[in-house]
Every structure is written in C-alpha cells, then in structure tokens.
Amino acid sequence: MNIDLTGKKIVIGVTGSISVYKACDIARLFIKAGANVQVVMSEAAKRFVTPLTFEALTRNIVLHEGSESWASNLNHIEITKDCDLLLIAPATANTINKMAKGICDNILLETIIAFNKPIAIAPAANTNMLENHQTKNSLKMLAVSDITIIEPQNKLLACGDTGSGALAEPSEIFWECSKILLKDSFWENRRVVVTGGGTREKIDDVRFISNYSSGKMANSIATALHLKGADVCLITTAKHDSIPKNIYTIDVESATEMMDFTIDAIRVAKKGVMSKPSISNPDSIALIQKEPYLFMVAAIADFTPTYPQVGKIKKSDIGEHWEIKLKQNPDILNSIDKNGIKTVAFKAEMNKENGLKNAYSLMKQKSVDAVCYNHISEENNFGSDENKIVWITDNEEVNFDKKDKLSLAFDVLETSKKLSK
Fold first, then answer.
1. Is there a single domain that holds both residue 125 and residue 211?
2. Could you tell me the CATH number of the domain that includes residue 82?
3. Which of 95, 191, 199, 236 could potentially form a cystine with 292 if both were Cys, beta carbons 3.0 to 4.6 Å apart?
4. Which of 181, 211, 246 is the last residue of a domain?
5. Which residue in the list 24, 83, 104, 159 is annotated as catalytic?
6. Cα 10 from Cα 181, distance rounded (Å)
C-alpha cells in the first residue's frame, strides 16, 4: 500500500470475537507501513488467539490481565501515553455497549477510558446483536463522541446467519486508521473532483475506441486525498477495487459521460461541506466553504465514432475494409466553469523534445492552474505502478523523482496546496 507511518504508534485492542484472527493481519499492515504496534487483549480474546501470536508479530509484549506491570509502562495508564491511535478490532457488542456507558471492568476498557487521543472501532458481531436498539444507540453515542466507526461487512457470518456483522476487511481498517493519522487541515472537509482512466468511445455494442490509460494515477490521487481528509468524488472508466471503499466513485465510459458528470460534480463541490454535530451541541451543523479542486487525470479520447451502432456489426457485413467516420469529442477542460475551483491537469506526451513545451501550452490555452507533465517511455509506460512527472505552474517547475504512484500522489497534493496561498 506504500503508506509511510514511520514514527506512529498504534495500540490495537482485541476483544473476544471469532474474527480476532484478522487482527493479526491488521497488525501486520501497520508494521509493514513502519508503525510501532502494541496490542491489548481482553481475557475473552485470549480464548481465540494467544498473546504469543501478537508478540511474535509486533515484537512487543501484549498487555493483558496476567502481564500488567506497574514497574514498567506495561499497564493501562502508561501504555497509550505516547500512542497516536487506539484501534479496537474486532469490537464485540459487549465492548461497544460498555464503551458507550463508560464502563471499564476489564483491562482493555480501562485502557480505552484512560486514552484521550483518536479512537477507532471495527465492530464484529451477530447481525441481531448489532441491530439491537441498545447497540445501535451505543454506536451513535460513540460516533457523536468523535470515535471513528469502521462499518462491518454484510456477508455469511460464522454463526451461519447472513447479514451485517462481519469484521471489515483488514485493508479497509488500515485505510480508515491511516486517514486518522495522516489527515491534513488543508484538505480536511475540502471537496475534490478527480477524473481517471481512458474513455471508451462506442463503435457498436461490443467494440470501442480507447487508449492505454490504466487509471492507476487517478486512483492514487483519490486515495491520497481521502487519507488527507478530503471529500473526494472519483469519476473514472477504470477499475477501482483496490482503493478505499468510502471514496465516492462514479463509473463512466465515454467522454460525453465524463464531461456531464464532471460538470455536475464541480457544481456540487462548489457548495461546500456540512460539518458534523458535536456531542456538546448536536445542533451545531455549519457549512464549511473551502475552495474545491479538480484533478483532471483522465485520458480523454480525442475522437468518437459519428454513428455508433446498436448490436454487433458482423464481419461479413463489413467486407475487407472498414472505414469508421469519427468526430471530435468535447474538450472537457475548455467546457467546464473554472471559476472558484483550482484545476490541475495531467498531460502525457511521448515527444521528449517538445513534451514539456506542449504541457506549458496546455496550461495557457485551457487556463488551468497547474499541469502534471508525464513523459511516456519504455521506462515510464502506461499501466506501470510507478511514475515520474514534472509539476508546472506560471512561476514554478518541480521535477518529481520516479516512485510508486501513491507516494507520488502525496507529493503532488503537498505541492498543490500552494495554489490556494
């Protein structure tokens, strides 16, 4: 996932759910990202997984009733003092209801109530237990108390019932916790529109004109924005199953669809974001108005068939030669209203000599605030997991070294902040 959490400390609280084994994968994801992980286990959790398993993964002694020590920092007060985030995963209905009522009758709940920094919980329980009005009220109370609730999955449960209650995927829990750790006040509550992928222009119902754009750079930009706290709308033709599921995504195919949805998304983005109510004042909802951004990463086909056909055109009806009449697609960057929005365009070129010059021309001709220029070559090709770009504005040119696309996306976002200064 290429997220750098070096220097961050995460405490994972583990409760007595059948899905407790997935907490091992969650811990592993944080460790891979460079974080220091400490585990606290309830006595019920130890019936499913032993403390030794987590100690082998984290290289830290697990805090539980039998290991608590007041001669060191392995106790429910000291263990979280230098911690950045407390994650309860899995969180049983019992733990959820006790948390909401301030009960602390075991070492994990004592640790939770002594912690005064961000907390996230990932519920895992039978559907009826989660749907019980007491549990639902508890979850609402925790959410209003600024505790992040990572929604469970709807699937076949271990008990044999089908419904909501399965622990969220470890990757999704990791994404949402990383969002808490990486949020940036500049991007938080700011609406951002991202377009991605190569448009598909219909010839008939089984054939189309397109290009080699994979959509990976747009997915990375959208993911980085989400982790920074932005309200993201990703409009794309490409697959996006590897990005956080909480990113609002619109699937399109043609350039016309891309333009229509982009114009509509920009209109919504300019309206701002509603704030969340606070526990002290549940009615304190206000409109947060921050200048929105548009990252135009999509590779729009220049031309589209003039007369797309219904059904499949048979080869026997075409003959030896097929001449398809094309017309120009609408120019989205020229068509949108760029007033009140910062616009960053992406331009891929294969012409090494004139590519950068063409990127500067695009910036002037289409009145965008910045351009990310990408020279396509054998070393920097379509569909690769890495990229190398040049950031250009009227008064700045920044060369970003080749790196994985998510890391590059974070660099682009940091530089993009200058556009609003």
1. no
2. 3.40.50.1950
3. 191
4. 181
5. 159
6. 10
Residues 195, 171 within the same domain: no
Q: How many domains does the chain have?
A: 2
pLDDT-derived band at 282 (thresholds 50, 70, 90) equals low
CA distance 374 to 381: 10
Listed in sequence order, the residues at least 6 apart from 235 whose beta carbon sits closer than 8 Å to its beta carbon are 193, 194, 195, 196, 249, 250, 252, 258, 261, 262, 265, 298
Asked if residue 227 is part of any domain, the answer here is yes
* Residues ≥6 apart with Cβ < 8 Å to 351: 358
Q: Which of residues 181, 216, 247 is at a domain's end? A: 181
Question: What angle do helix axes 22-32 and 170-182 make, rounded to 10 degrees?
Answer: 40
| Strand pairing class (303-305; 326-328) | antiparallel
The pLDDT tens digits of the residues spanning 174-206 come to 999 999 999 999 999 999 999 999 999 999 888
How far apart, in whole angstroms, are the C-alpha atoms of residue 306 and residue 405?
36
- For residues 196 and 297, state if they share a domain: yes
**Is 159 one of the annotated active-site residues of the chain?**
yes
- pTM recorded for the entire structure: 0.91
